[in-house]
Amino acid sequence: VALLHALLDAGYHNLVLCHLNHALRGEASDADAEFVHALAKKHQLASEIQRVNLPEICRSSGESMELAARNARHHFFAQCAEKHGLDHVLLAHHANDQAETILFNLLRGSAGLKGMSFSQVHQIQRNQLTFLRPFLKVSREAIDLYIENHAIDFREDASNAAPIATRNRIRNEVMPLLNEIMGRDVAPAMARAEHISQLHEKALKSSISELHLIDPQGRIFLPKLKELSPTLQSIVLHDYLQKAGISNISQSLIEKCLGLLQHPTPSKINLPGNRFFRRKEKRLFIS
Amino acid sequence: VALLHALLDAGYHNLVLCHLNHALRGEASDADAEFVHALAKKHQLASEIQRVNLPEICRSSGESMELAARNARHHFFAQCAEKHGLDHVLLAHHANDQAETILFNLLRGSAGLKGMSFSQVHQIQRNQLTFLRPFLKVSREAIDLYIENHAIDFREDASNAAPIATRNRIRNEVMPLLNEIMGRDVAPAMARAEHISQLHEKALKSSISELHLIDPQGRIFLPKLKELSPTLQSIVLHDYLQKAGISNISQSLIEKCLGLLQHPTPSKINLPGNRFFRRKEKRLFIS
Questions:
Q1: Which residues of A touch B205 (CB under 8 A)?
Q2: Nearest-neighbour CA in chain B from A78: distance (Å)
Q3: Do the beta carbons of residue A103 and residue B193 sit within 8 Å?
Q4: B177:A181 CB<8 A
Q5: Could you tell me the CA-to-CA distances from A110 to A115, B115, B169, B176, B241 in Å, in that order?
Q6: Scanning every residue of chain B, which has its alpha carbon at the shortest distance from the alpha carbon of A188?
């Protein structure tokens, strides 16, 4: 609701309010949908309201609640976008959501620090949609103040009660405990750390591509790779294998592959799925 | 104690047991020191036991307890190393200590993910010491099992009761809560994420140095910098300013400095401390 008002204040009026009723809270979910409908009417905007039976989808598809909810949302947004000829989806995730996501991903063991992106392009069926999160650096506290100062009528988002128990416990138990221990809202520090981490990841990818290691046939040019530091060689090989669809790349596999740089034999390494990483005519490639 | 036994098992016998009594727990601290002395005697090893009055040092120097404890330890290790002609310090930090450190640094807003290093060289006065943490990937649980299986007599480390209240609350309240919510020990996942993040940081630094952007006079060669992506340009400038001792480098300062690449004027940017970032003869430098 705050995002809608901020957008209207900023002069955006070609907006469609999209609400997907996950049907997880019974009557409260229905009341949310009614609220969105009335809100759109009040501001003379179009609205799209759909209902999915998420528990049913999970039962029949075997997907996790999290994945099923995500797929349902993407599918819904793509439908709305197509119907209204729009290609931007604005989401109201804020800095505290971001901190929870960063912590959750860290606990799951994702590589490095990873939160939500401010801007992200998704190809959903035949639609290319840009997801934007204008509030990603805005704290929940600032949003509450904005709502209060503008005397805006709102409802708690039904997704806050989504059955993603782990996420909810991080929100309701872990984040308050961390704030109390550190004596301040830890979300901004976490968001800054994530931002720098993502920037560095992007820079690393960009700087590796500046090294022009890959020949026109998509093979690694060995003499150039040999000039790099062992750390950088490991990253290049890891990226190369990952892009070729090799999963669960262990450090010991990388070390075996690095062996192809130094030793005359062997000239190939076994990869999962009956594939090989080979050295031939000063090139490294997968066959 | 477990580390000592593991080292003896592995055939290392030229060991000195070093124990710094932080004098923070009164009699318990003294009993720790006696335990170390007896342990060394039992295994026919030399021992070095010293006492520092940490609260007193903090009062007189104004340092934080954490910094004062660190300086006192480093000073003590340097003394021991010099006396015994040794240059490696083996520390028993384990995977759960590492997870706490990673989380603590994240909450403090350090850049990216940062834990303790497996191996680190410290220049302490005139001594160059290598700090090693052989147990950094070993869980506390595995260490407890090792102690139990070998029926080894031990004492709880006095540092576990160090007055670093925040660290202790992370250890005693946050980590158990995270483990409970995720349904497993989260330390290994966090350590893996940190390891990859550090590897990528190292690779980024290494790949930037491969680009040979700095001329023999230590200035940035502008035509080469211009060829890079904006992200990479930002990182290069950030690193350059940081190495020159500029602190608190904001994104807006970086953007101003990036302006020197595109626009003919101005040719200098104000930096903190009456210094300037200048463009002259296709070079960027600080004066």
A1: none
A2: 31
A3: no
A4: no
A5: 10, 16, 25, 20, 31
A6: B109
CB B187 within 8 A of CB B139: yes
Candidates A107, A193, A231; nearest CB to B182 = A107
Among B107, B173, B188, select the one facing A182 at the smallest CB separation: B107
Query: What are the pLDDT digits (tens) for A138-164?
Result: 988 899 999 999 988 888 765 554 446
Nearest chain A residue to B115, by CA: A112
Q: Which residue has the tokens 């997880």?
A: A24
Dist CA A93 CA A80 (whole Å): 20
Instruction: Put residue A269 in one of left, alpha, beta given phi > 0 → left and psi -120 to 50 → alpha.
Output: beta
pTM of the predicted structure, to 2 decimals: 0.77
Residue with tokens 């035509």: B223
Long-range CB contacts for residues B197-202, cutoff 8 Å, separation at least 24: B197/A111, B197/A112, B197/A113, B197/A197, B197/B112, B197/B113, B197/B114, B198/B113, B198/B114, B198/B115, B198/B117, B199/A231, B199/A234, B199/A235, B200/A112, B200/A200, B200/A201, B200/A204, B200/A235, B201/A200, B201/B112, B202/A231
Ranges of residues in chain B with a pLDDT under 50 are 161-163
HEC string of A87-133?
CEEECCCCHHHHHHHHHHHHHHCCCCCCCCCCEEEEEECCEEEEEEC
Answer yes or no: do B227 and A210 touch at CB < 8 A: yes
Of B106, B192, B197, the CB nearest to A190: B106
Q: Which segments in chain A show pLDDT lower than 70?
A: 25-26, 111, 157-164
Residues of chain B with Cβ-Cβ distance to A172 below 8 Å are none
Q: Are strands A127-132 and A88-90 parallel, antiparallel or unpaired?
A: parallel
Query: Can you give the C-alpha Rg of chain A in angstroms?
Result: 24
Residue B177 to chain A, least CA–CA distance (Å): 7
ipTM of the complex: 0.75
Q: Round to the nearest angstrom and report the end-to-end CA distance of chain A.
A: 53
